[in-house]
Amino acid sequence: MKKRIYIYELDCYKVASEEQIQRMRISPERYFNLEGLPSEELAEKLEEFIWERGKMLAPSSMASEVTYYNNIREFLIERKIQSLDAREEEKIIRMLKGWMLERGYALSSKKYRPAYDKVGIESPGIVRHMKKILKFLEEEDDRDEQEKDIWTLKNFDFPIQGNPILNTETINFTKIVQPDIREEVKKVIFMHLKYSPLGTIHSEMTAVKRFSKFLKRKYLDIQSLQDLERMHIEEYLIYLQTEAHDRKNYRSDLYALRRVIEDVGNLYERQYMSELFLSNDFPSTPRHVFKFYSDAEIKRLNEHIFKMDEQICRALIIHQLLGTRISDTLTLKTDCLSMRNNRYFIRIDQVKSVTYEKAISEEVAQLIMKAIDYTKKRYGETTYIFVKKDDPTRPYQYSMIQNQIMTMIRQEDIRDDNGEFLKFGTHIFRHCYGKKLTEMHVDDWMIAKLLGHTSIYSVHHYRKIGNKLMADETRAAREKMDMILLDIIEGWDDYEI
Fold first, then answer.
1. For 257-310, how does the pLDDT look when each residue is reduced to its tens digit (9 = 90+)?
2. Domain interval for residue 256
3. CA 443, CA 469: separation in Å to the nearest integer?
4. Which of residues 221, 249, 281 is at a domain's end?
5. What is the mean pLDDT of residues 99-110?
6. I need a labelling partner for 449 at 20 to 30 A (CA). Which of 130, 328, 371, 407 fits?
């Protein structure tokens, strides 16, 4: 067994280009120290962990992990810990934090989150690294997936309605603190997983975890959802109104909780559970205020978007030109374009609902073809146009787009018409698109078709922020919408459409 593992010995370093190595400026003396560990078994496990990480991460990431690892090594030596058991994670982390306090290490750190324009609190790198080690050391669980407390979605043998632009790999039940409730909820979620989108599952899990936390505080004797009475629901409603401050309105949360509780009742043949909630328990629907950019704000933002990575830039401009949901833009496929009667059409496979086609101008089609060529040259044949650099089988993740834009807004000091930092949300572009179409006298059914809506209900919201006149002609309206952005693109010296 080696006593030291140097960065330059790792697989990731060996396959890195000379340019990458020079840019990273990693000292050849950086190494993971395996000397002095309390047991040979522990040293062997940690050595295995380091080699495995060296296959997955970039050399620069491994170099940053050296410090965390060597701190953990000191902790293990001083506390004479001869083995690590993932099942005792809580105990080990508690011991590690005690050691950190003795050494003067902070137990939390502040991190600015540009996507939300907030400073969040996160665990220190040492703690996060210890959790990765414990995760690696987990013994293989050969139980059926639905019996586990953390489900890995890829292990199920039926299709799951996930959103490709959101990185959801697991469902974690461990924060449902009552064991019986946890098992009841697992049965229901397993059933829902077969026909409900992951977004719905996520809402149900959030609602149940919040309710579990409430029961732990107020009703320790409630260990099963089958023990619930109407008084417990009433107390929970009061709690949401007076003590909970996670969100402004809990309407959707309560509907999700009701779905789970009622389906537990159906599974266990407890019909009374369908009567625990009353219709007037749910807050009124909050009035949705549609936000949109002025033409000046769009122009101001886009003048800086072109300075970003060219493919990200194309994605954002195409997103605005199409008026699609961001999930539909980022999951555009390389075969999405077609031509009929000398007109270009684009096929949009909606994550949220259906597949549809709409006509686009030649300029927009050329921009999409440029994006396709960019991807093919770098990654070969792919399913999606806009793909992750480290995994071209997957599309861009929304969080990456959001973080980059929010960072740029702060760095470039981009302001709205009122002088405040510009608020960013990709759906705002869609609202702008809808508003422009109403201003161009396009009828409601055509707007619904262009936006990919299955009904005209949502169009009325756009009418509220545009005028109400209608007409049948749409081609001129579409092309005018295109020109708003193509006018901006025209001046970009470094970008070809």
1. 999 999 999 999 999 999 999 988 887 765 554 455 666 677 777 777 777 788
2. 145-281
3. 8
4. 281
5. 85
6. 371
Give the distance from CA 196 to its chain's centroid: 18
Residues near 233 by Cβ (< 8 Å), separated by ≥ 6?
276, 277, 281
CA atoms within 13 A of residue 67's CA, in its CB half-sphere: 7
From residue 183, how far is each of 148, 180, 260 by CA, in Å? Answer: 10, 5, 12
Residue 307 shares a structural domain with residue 440: yes
Verify that 123 and 214 share a domain, yes or no.
Answer: no
Decide the pairing of beta strands 118-122 and 170-172: unpaired
* DSSP code at position 32: E
CA–CA distance, 351 with 136 (Å, rounded to integer): 33
pLDDT on residue 405: 80
- Residue 104 shares a structural domain with residue 166: no
For residues 37 and 129, give the distance between their C-alpha atoms in angstroms, rounded to a whole number: 17
Clarify whether residues 315 and 255 are in a common domain: no
Task: Identify the residue whose tokens are 């959790």.
Answer: 131
Cα 254–Cα 259–Cα 262 angle in degrees, nearest 5: 115
Which residue, 115, 137, 159, sits at the end of a domain? 137
Say if residue 65 is in the same domain as residue 131.
yes
* Dist. CA 325–CA 352, nearest whole Å: 9
- What does residue 355 show for φ and ψ, rounded to 5 degrees? -95, 135
**What 3-state class would DSSP assign to 4?**
strand
**Could you tell me how many residues make up the chain?**
497
Q: b/e per residue, 437-450, with b = 16+ CB within 10 A?
A: bbbbbbbbebbbbb
Same domain flag for 266 and 392:
no
* Contact (Cβ atoms closer than 8 angstroms) between residue 157 and residue 191: no
